[in-house]
Each structure stands twice: as C-alpha cells, then as structure tokens.
Design brief:
It is built from nine helices and 14 strands. It is α/β, with parallel strands linked by helices. α2 packs antiparallel against α8 and α3 runs parallel beside α4. The termini are far apart. The structure holds S-adenosylmethionine (SAM).
C-alpha cells in the first residue's frame, strides 16, 4: 500500500497564483511551468515520453540500466526520494537494483501533480511490496524540508526536470539541496546536454502535435482555475532553440493584438501582435559549466555518466565537504 504522507494543498496553490501574477507581468510574459501538470497534462507528458523525437527518457534509461549497480554500490541508499517523480518510469531501474542490493527500505516520490502522483505511488507499491511507498504532494522549490530524514538517502531528480528551472531558481534549488544533504546522502540528476539545434527543435515540435497539445493545456488549466480568457486560436505554438541562453524556449506568440483577463488574479493582460508568452524553458547543459554551478551551490559531482551518443548525462552529486568539518 502506498500512503500519502503530506499534501501541501491550498497553501501550494496560493504560491502558484502569486508566481503566475509575477510571471505574467514580467518581460517576456511567462506562465509558471507548474500549469503544464494538471491531470490531463501529466497524461500528455506520458505520451511525449514515447515520441520518437523525444530522445530524453530513452537516453536516461540507457544510462540508468548500465549504471544502476554502480549507483547502488556507491550510495547504499536505504531511502530513495524522487523530486517531480511523475509516473516514475525510469525510477523503476533504481528500485529494482537498490532492492536487489538489499539496502532499500523506502521510496518517497514528491510531485505537485496530486492525482498523477497517487496513481504512480499505488502502482509502485503494488510492484514492490517490500518497499514502503510514502508519497508527498508538494513543490520541490518549497517543500524539500518535508522529505523524511535518517538512513542513507538518495534524492533523484530525473527526466531533465532541472532544465525547466531558470538559472536563478536552479541555483537556489541546488543550494537548498546541498543544505538538505547529510554526509551519507547523495543526489542523482538527469541532465540533457547541448547538441545540434535541429535535433533539439525536433524534440519539441513533433509532427503529431502531442507537445503542442501539452503546452496548450496550460492555457486551458489557467482558464479553468483562474477564470481566465486565453483563446487558443489567438496564440501560435512556438518552440525554438535559443543559442545564447542554451535553452529551448517553449510557448506561444500572439497572432494578433488582444487582451486576456484573469479575473481571479484581478489582471487584464494586453498582448501585442507577435508578442511571446513563454510556458517553459528546457535548459541544456555542458559538463564543465554544470560542475561549476554545482560547486557554487556546495555540491560536488562525484560521477558523471552519459549515453553512448553523448546526448544526456546522469550525475551523482554529494555535499562538498567544508575544510575542517
Ligand atoms: C518533465 S516531467 C518528469 C517526470 C518524470 N520524472 C520523468 O522523468 O518522466 C516533470 C515532473 O515534475 C513535476 N513538477 C513540475 N514542477 C514541479 C514542482 N515545482 N514541484 C514538484 N513537482 C513538479 C511535474 O508534475 C512532472 O511530474
């Protein structure tokens, strides 16, 4: 049986509304990524992971398949926590190997998408009866303190979700994670790497339009929850590689000048023709720069593994020891 140990509920939504108000008043206008993951969005994301163009989950799977025994030996984890767990598909490779290694007792998935999380926690609990599954509905940017303490913890953050954070958010999360890690804990990150722009753009512009439907669903979710008036036909989907920022910039352009109201936020939002509305970024990384970022946050990259094509990396990080401690 899976148990839902914490649900941050209404307090979490208030923070999302505040971030939405802030994001829509920024330049460029942006919706927080969290709007992508209501129940329908989580189901659409699952379809994206099976698209031939969306190489990320398969590259990560290849690495975890090859390296899970090494990860089990290095971490000897008694608890596996997963941030943004979603369906926890690739996590099963870790659960299998850590379970067989004999150290694992608990799995703690944390995700903001409550229904998707509960469904995946039940499925995992049924498949792994010897492991206690304790789900947390929460926001990894605010709720790291809800993770249980004790034992040797492995905190996984897979699927390149870290790339969806802006650099300042990412720096804060890495710093918070460094503060959360005890000396025997480790952090496992799935990271997408910089590559040919055409392949990157193809990954977010599939011909079936599943990714577009996923991103459009954020507008539907905002309309429903915030009494907003986004009209799909007034926005054209756009996902393009930004070579300066080294991220995919994913969202819309207004087809014409018009105004959208968000009654619940008391906001009237004027769009000019061709103005951008960003819904998500997906940053792509380079090893050296990432190691530097991690070090600035107080983390050391202990292992760095890539798939055979060099498309994706899985990094194992530990808290940097402070001299004299
Ligand atoms: C890119 S998907 C990855 C899902 C899964 N880890 C995988 O690799 O297939 C991002 C996941 O993070 C969750 N998520 C996004 N923002 C979040 C936040 N701020 N706090 C907690 N979960 C979040 C979403 O609900 C979704 O399940």
């Amino acid at each position: 049986m899976a148990s839902l140990v914490v649900d941050t509920g209404a307090a979490g939504r208030e923070a999302v509304y505040e971030a939405t108000l802030h994001g829509l008043q920024a330049d460029p206008k942006a919706l927080p990524t969290i709007w992508l993951y209501d129940e329908r969005g989580s189901r659409l994301y699952e379809r994206i992971t099976r698209l031939p163009e969306y190489y990320l989950p398969r590259s990560e799977d290849e690495i975890l398949r090859a390296r899970a025994p090494e990860i089990a030996r290095l971490t000897q984890a008694s608890m596996l926590a997963e941030l943004g767990a979603g369906s926890a598909n690739n996590t099963r490779l870790l659960l299998d190997t850590l379970g067989a290694f004999g150290t694992l007792e608990r799995f703690v998935p944390l995700d903001v998408s409550g229904q998707a999380l509960q469904a995946s926690a039940q499925t995992i609990a049924a498949a792994y009866p010897r492991i206690a599954v304790e789900a947390i509905v929460g926001d990894f940017e605010r709720d790291l303190g809800l993770l249980p303490r004790g034992g040797r913890r492995l905190i996984a953050f897979l699927g390149s979700t870290i790339g969806n954070l802006y650099p300042d958010q990412r720096a804060t999360l890495l710093t918070d994670l460094a503060a959360e890690l005890e000396p025997h804990d480790s952090l496992l990150l799935g990271i997408d790497l910089v590559k040919d722009a055409a392949r990157l753009q193809a990954a977010y512009n599939d011909p079936q339009g599943v990714t577009e439907a996923f991103v459009r669903n954020a507008l539907t979710a905002v309309n429903l929850e915030l009494d907003a008036t986004f009209e799909q036909q007034r926005f054209a989907y756009e996902a393009r590689w930004d070579p300066e920022e080294e991220w995919m910039d994913i969202g819309f352009r207004a087809r014409e000048a018009h105004t959208v109201s968000l009654s619940r936020l008391g906001l009237e939002l004027a769009f000019e023709e061709a103005e951008a509305l960003r819904v998500e970024i997906s940053s792509k990384f380079r090893r050296e720069r990432f190691e530097h970022e991690a070090a600035t946050a107080g983390l050391r990259v202990a292992s760095w593994w890539t798939d055979h094509a060099g498309d994706f990396a899985v990094a194992l990080l530990v808290r940097e020891r402070i001299a004299g401690s």
